[in-house]
Design goal:
This protein has nine helices and 20 strands. It is α+β, with helices and mostly antiparallel strands and 360 residues long. A four-stranded antiparallel sheet has the order 1-8-5-6. Strand 9 and strand 10 form a beta hairpin. The protein is globular and about 75 Å long.
Length: 360
């Protein structure tokens, strides 16, 4: 049903520093799949002219520490970097049917392969998948309608959430427009501040081994990007930190937490709890910009003492942090992001409902 694609890099030599980018741009416009967990498996982008590519494919992680056996749909034009491969259906398909097959393949192979047992195509191609049938034939129509209805259900939930939380109102106020303009034109005065002097000493977490964790409801934060660093939900008696605080993991990655949580010894907590919410989010961004520049890794971990020595840049008024303007800016940015989400949801809901009505 599928064939593995052997897509080539078209230049004579490959230079990772110059031939790929972690950011999508007009130059680096082609998604490249590799062994990444999340973000639809895309970590890098290449130039379309440099890589052979294909559309309407499914990619499989063949070799990754935690991502081996992950399967993702790639309906757009895509190519391959490493530790992954693309397979292409040998039948007429569309995006919804592609998603159905992706889910079915992942269900079949994810638990069978791992870092010690690579999910190469030589093995995966012999795996069996379960599909709906009608009159002894694969029921592609059912797959199409099933995914369309599932998508409509999820979009309706999103629409209800946006309405209930008031996020559907994405119109910028005059004050928000002015602050955005001032930041973009760099008219806002900034100053460097020491983190400890602003918020006191940071707090380091305590080790809690995986085997000692009791399943529960409290988010437990460790180092990592997957699921925002939440590795488990526990019931253990641990120190609970309050919402509206900032965590920095062993790699220097800062994250805002709007919920109570526990944390391990690879996490430092910055005491931003007394700030207004949007100001705390701004500070978290400033911390991340300062701490996550590649200076911390497995060999040199970030600890609470590093947080105390960290300097960050903040907008000021009378030589003091201007938390008011930080709140306004984050509110404006949230509205700009939500605007795209709301407009996308409205378009998709309309299109999906129309497709379902036609099928009925």
């Amino acid at each position: 049903m599928f064939e593995k694609l052997n897509l080539r890099f078209l230049k004579s030599t490959f230079d990772k520093e110059n031939d790929v980018s972690k950011e999508k741009s007009l130059e680096f416009d082609l998604p490249l799949v590799n062994a990444k967990d999340g973000d639809n498996w895309i970590m890098y982008y290449g130039r379309s002219k440099d890589f052979e590519s294909a559309e309407m494919t499914i990619d499989i992680v063949g070799d990754g520490a935690i991502s081996t056996g992950n399967v993702y749909s790639q309906p757009q034009k895509t190519s391959v970097l490493y530790n992954a491969y693309l397979i292409k259906p040998q039948f007429s398909t569309n995006e919804k049917i592609l998603h159905f097959f992706t889910s079915t393949i992942q269900k079949s192979i994810k638990l069978k392969f791992g870092y010690e047992n690579k999910a190469g195509w030589a093995k995966v191609q012999d795996e069996k998948i379960q599909l709906p049938t009608k009159n002894g034939e694969i029921d592609f129509e059912f797959m199409d309608k099933f995914i369309a209805e599932l998508e409509a259900e999820r979009l309706a939930e999103l629409e209800a959430y946006l309405t209930t939380t008031g996020l559907k109102d994405y119109t910028l106020t005059n004050e928000e427009k002015q602050v955005l303009e001032e930041f973009e034109s760099e008219k806002v005065t900034r100053k460097t501040f020491n983190l400890e002097k602003l918020f006191g000493k940071s707090t380091r977490g305590k080790r809690l081994k995986s085997d000692d964790r009791v399943s529960g409801i409290l988010p437990f934060v460790t180092a990592g990007e997957t699921d925002e660093g939440i590795s488990a939900f526990i019931w253990n008696e641990v120190t609970i930190f309050s919402e509206n605080t900032t965590t920095i993991d062993m790699f220097g990655s800062a994250k805002y937490r709007n919920y109570k949580y526990g944390w391990d010894d690879h996490i430092a907590v910055v005491h931003t709890e007394n700030l207004p919410k949007y100001a705390a989010i701004f500070v978290t961004t400033a911390i991340h910009k300062s701490s996550h520049n590649g200076q911390f890794d497995y060999w040199r971990n970030f600890y609470a003492k590093d947080a105390d020595e960290l300097n960050i840049q903040l907008p000021t008024q009378n030589n003091q942090p201007n938390y008011g303007i930080m709140e306004i800016l984050i509110s404006a940015i949230q509205k700009l992001v939500i605007k795209d989400v709301v407009e996308y949801a409205d378009r998709k809901i309309g299109a999906t409902r129309g497709a379902i009505e036609k099928k009925d």
